[in-house]
Amino acid sequence: MINFQFTQATDVSDALRQIAADPDARLIAGGTNILDLMKYDVERPGRLIDISHLPLRTVEETPSGGLRIGALVPNSDLAYHPLVEERYPLLSSAILAGASQQLRNMASTGGNLMQRTRCLYFYDTVTPCNKRVPGSGCSAISGINRTNAILGTSEACIATHPSDMCVALAALEATVHVVGPSGDRAIPFADFHRLPGDTPEIDTNLAPDEIIVAIELPPKGFAANYSYLKIRDRLSYAFALVSVAAVMELEGGRITEARVALGGVAHKPWRRMEAEAALRGGAPDRAAFAKAAAILLHDSRGFGHNNFKIDLARRAIERTLTQAARGTPQIQAVKKIR
Amino acid sequence: MTYIGTATSRVDGHAKVTGAAKYAAEPKVADLTHGSVVTSTIAKGRIARIDVSDALQVDGVIDVLTHTNRPRMADTDSGYKDDVAPDGTPFRPLYDDRILFDGQPVALVVANDLETAQFAASLVQVDYDEEPHITDMQRQRDVASVLKAAAEPGANPFAPPKPRGNAKAALAAAAVRHQGEYSVPIEHHNPIELYASTVMYEPDGTLTVYDKTQGVQNVQRYLCGVLELAPDHVRVLSPFTGGAFGSGLRPQYQVVLAALAALALKRSVRVVLTRQQMYGLGYRPAMVQRIELGAKADGTLEAITHDAITITSQYEHFYRQETGWSGLLYQCPNATYAHRLVPLDLPTSCDMRAPSAATGVYALECAMDELAFALGLDPLDLRLRCYSDRDQIANLPYSSKNLRECYRRGAEAFGWDKRNPEPRSMRGGSELVGWGMATGVWEALQMPIAVRIALTANGHAEVSCATSDIGTGTYTIMAQVAADMLGLPLDNVTVKLGDSTLPQSPVEGGSWIAASVANGIVTTSESIRRELLDLAKQVPNSPLADVAPDGVRITDGKLVSNNDPARMVSIADAMRHGGVDRIEQEQTTRVPEDKAHSHNTHSAVFAEVRVDEELGVVRVTRVVNAVAAGRILNTKTASSQILGGVVWGIGMALHEEALLDHTFGRVMNANIAEYHVPVNADIHDIEVIFVDEPDESINRLGIKGLGEIGIVGVAAAIANAVYHATGKRVRDLPITLDKILQ
């Protein structure tokens, strides 16, 4: 770890001023990822601006019937918040599928969005990595890529986004509220994270001088038919090989609305509107789920070690949709898959 | 006996949970400096240039040690040979510009505090002249060197055994044959305590070294060799060790670096490796094993061939006898073995819990399971049909072998008789259920050891030996044995270990310490009793005046006649009349002569898995491990040993694997987030059973030791259960879900 300055922001505008004044600075809230990255010399900020004390810790109902979650609400508080458990159990479940209780106690809502990839080469400063050092090359494409992406990859990068919570937020069509020097703006969740393209060093569309202040959930929470299923190399405390967030509305034995988002397979939570459109109006049966899976995984590509993820993702999508349709969501505390 | 055989809690437990127990990186030392290691980023070549100028500029940096400015070191291989070094040319840390493996130390930055040292270490610039490296075993399989079988038994315990009979002909004639190739990846020990050394530079120029190790005297001799110091110039202490599992049998490089810096700076220095750097130390060698079995239709074995290919470094030849377990365990007239060694540009492989057995028995017991299916026999029934009361290699009876009872009690506790033999026949809800079993075997080894006991007039004993307690409970069992032998309450016994100035001990490994040190305590206790009797006879009108040396025992602080318990002299009286306030005895105990027997521990492991077939997810929901390991000194710490072994076996079966990128010759998952070991969610019910196994000839207390046996057979039982559940035979570990889905 290199030496760095440490300052505290007094309020959001002070944080904005500080981050604008120092391009070498990074924000720190829970610190569950940035400190790790600094210890590995992957991130080398000259300054850490502590925003953990800012008043962004509330969960409030919005006039439209949604929920506005402050960017600094800890993951644990959010997962166990009564309104989230009652109306957005998918979000609760996805959060509890990630990390450990201790990490969730520290990790913030906004920080969860800003997590960086767990690609082995990104974490090892000795090896080339376009995300860490643009232009140095991608070691994962021809290296150890068991956990890497199968969708939306580029010649420059096959990293995945590691978050579980974000997969649920993508399925729920959350909105990210940010503030910057020129005021507030709202970013639809689908537009927040980016595909790697030829600039894999840029993970999100958040500008360097902007700060996330809240995540807003729309009124519809799909509390009756949902499931979050995470498949990994051990039964807890590992990043997803594949995860699936599925929600649907059923009426008279037909799907009136469905959403499916995938984690662990791409540089961002992966959705395909065509897959969801294909489910709409049909019966919630295995054939329909298989068709949706095929659309979601269209153009998927393996790089050797991760070839199995294509078939695994197909199976996981079908299973999660089945769980959601039956109203038997995966329970994270129980490791048997329902 | 009051304490031996009971579930005595650890005598050092309170110190450990309160933090009073100080590990190698923890002693408070005045004026301490901190070292941070810079490691190589290539696997082979030379250091062309090493620029430490930026590091030296950092405020608080004292010095940077490299091969160009280090103090004098030995220049012969013998200077670097530790007690358990394999053949070859030992690695010399910071000696010259040659790079032998990725993660090799190339510099030590020493600063006033750890953070400064770490920051400055990141500024050291190293340029290399790279040479092509090879780290891929599969690429080198065909050029591996063949290990010759030992000319006579015991000549080289690690070379393959001599063949017996004619396995080739017997295989050709066998009614039923099975052959399979089984592979195990590189696995790392991952002890929770990082490798660390605190070297105190004493005013007289000598070194007092707190080191994480399984052998303080090995480290002491090694440092004297490497640094060319007189024996009385180095003292090594290791009172507590936070796990080692074989990785601490050989001295690790941080102790050399810390000692070099202490000598160079004439200051005390602490060096702690990072978790990532721990992956640059030894490891369980990756291996491929090919086993061929031939049997009669009734299931009796006719032939076994066991071939192993294992990896080592380019500079040392580390290997263990994977193949011999196949020859030893089951009755079989014909057996041949082959072992080839693949040198790679990696650090030297090393011992890791049950070295050779965890892997060799894994292959054998999977092959036996496959043979059972080929024969249409229950896997347990096949083992019983091949049961041998004699060591099949040495052709000797065992001093004790109660494996039959392990099978019986393990099967009973598990409910094995309810198993449907058909693969894919058992279900639990949406999951396939599989039941598998395997045999475990390990050696019951003993080593020469010296024990000193000092007994004071107030009935307090101090027992000391230079052995280590690597978390197994050695402090506790030493106290238990001494308390029983000296007739004292447990609280009146103090145990000292982990200090190179204490009486001689071998390294703590191979499961040999419990038996060796307990036997050593018995011997020295007898000397104490004899001396005490001599003193007691000096009491006026001594009631023990005419008693023979072996005619007394010590009970409740008194020397008591065996024939007439009314005749007694208290310890206090004996010492008072003898004019002493304490007596002290030190005895070296040799390994009891018992050439008429083989000495082994055994186990029967039963495992249940539940498999979600659609997604390939495996859960190990039950394991029963029934162990026969002689007299159990402490049922509590012994159970913990077996439980830990089972947990590790689950990791070996399903999770553990170092991921090497052969382009860089580098371990890419060098941390315990990405190198997976089981977490709580992976562990369900584990039942440990110890079967009675009286052993009259192995040593006077009938002790065998059980650090290793707990892991042996576990991975095979799980792999066999996965087959029974799914009908899919995965022969390369770990059994990850993609292999189930294939």
Please describe the structure with a list of short key phrases separated by commas or semicolons.
heterodimer; A: 338 residues; alpha+beta; Uridine Diphospho-n-acetylenolpyruvylglucosamine Reductase, domain 2; five-stranded antiparallel beta sheet; 12 helices; 19% strand; globular; B: 742 residues; Aldehyde Oxidoreductase, domain 3; Aldehyde Oxidoreductase, domain 4; 3 domains; five-stranded mixed beta sheet; 18 helices
In words, what does this structure look like?
The complex is a heterodimer of chains A (338) and B (742). Chain A contains twelve helices and eleven strands. Chain A has 338 residues and is α+β, with helices and mostly antiparallel strands. In chain A, strands 4-5-8-6-7 form a five-stranded antiparallel beta sheet. In chain A, a hairpin with a 2-residue loop joins β6 and β7. The longest helix of chain A is centred in the C-terminal third of the chain and has 19 residues. By secondary structure, chain B is of the alpha+beta class. Chain B folds into three domains: 202 residues, Aldehyde oxidase/xanthine dehydrogenase, a/b hammerhead (Aldehyde Oxidoreductase, domain 3), CATH 3.90.1170.50; 352 residues, Aldehyde oxidase/xanthine dehydrogenase, molybdopterin binding domain (Aldehyde Oxidoreductase, domain 4, 2-Layer Sandwich); 143 residues, 2-Layer Sandwich (Aldehyde Oxidoreductase, domain 4), CATH 3.30.365. Chain B contains 18 helices and 33 strands. In chain B, strands 3-6-1-13-10-11-12 form a seven-stranded mixed beta sheet. A five-stranded mixed beta sheet of chain B has the order 8-17-15-14-9, sandwiched between helices. In chain B, β10 and β11 form a beta hairpin. The model of chain B has no long low-confidence stretch (mean pLDDT 97). Classes of the chains: A alpha+beta (338), B alpha+beta (742). At the A-B interface, α12 of A face α3 and α18 of B.
Please specify the SSE layout and strand pairing.
The complex is a heterodimer of chains A (338) and B (742).
Chain A: E1 5-8, H1 12-21, E2 25-28, H2 34-39, E3 47-50, E4 59-61, E5 67-70, H3 75-79, H4 82-87, H5 89-96, H6 101-106, H7 109-113, H8 165-172, E6 175-180, E7 183-188, H9 189-192, E8 211-217, E9 226-231, E10 242-251, E11 254-263, H10 273-279, H11 286-296, H12 308-326
Parallel strand pairs in A: 1-3, 2-3
Antiparallel strand pairs in A: 4-5, 5-8, 6-7, 6-8, 9-10, 10-11
Chain B: H1 13-18, E1 32-39, E2 45-51, H2 53-57, E3 61-66, E4 87-88, E5 98-99, E6 105-111, H3 114-121, E7 125-130, H4 137-140, E8 145-146, H5 167-173, E9 176-184, E10 196-201, E11 207-211, H6 216-227, E12 234-237, H7 253-265, E13 268-272, H8 275-278, E14 287-295, E15 301-313, E16 316-317, H9 324-329, E17 334-344, H10 357-375, H11 379-385, E18 390-391, E19 396-397, H12 403-414, E20 426-428, E21 431-443, E22 449-456, E23 461-464, H13 474-486, E24 493-496, H14 513-536, E25 552-555, E26 558-561, E27 568-570, H15 571-578, E28 582-589, E29 600-612, E30 617-628, H16 635-654, E31 660-661, E32 666-667, E33 685-690, H17 714-726, H18 737-741
Parallel strand pairs in B: 1-13, 11-12, 15-17, 23-24, 30-33
Antiparallel strand pairs in B: 1-6, 2-5, 2-7, 3-6, 4-16, 8-17, 9-14, 10-11, 10-13, 14-15, 18-19, 20-21, 21-29, 22-23, 22-28, 25-26, 26-27, 29-30, 31-32
Helix pairs in contact in B: 6-7, 10-11, 10-17, 13-14, 14-15, 16-17
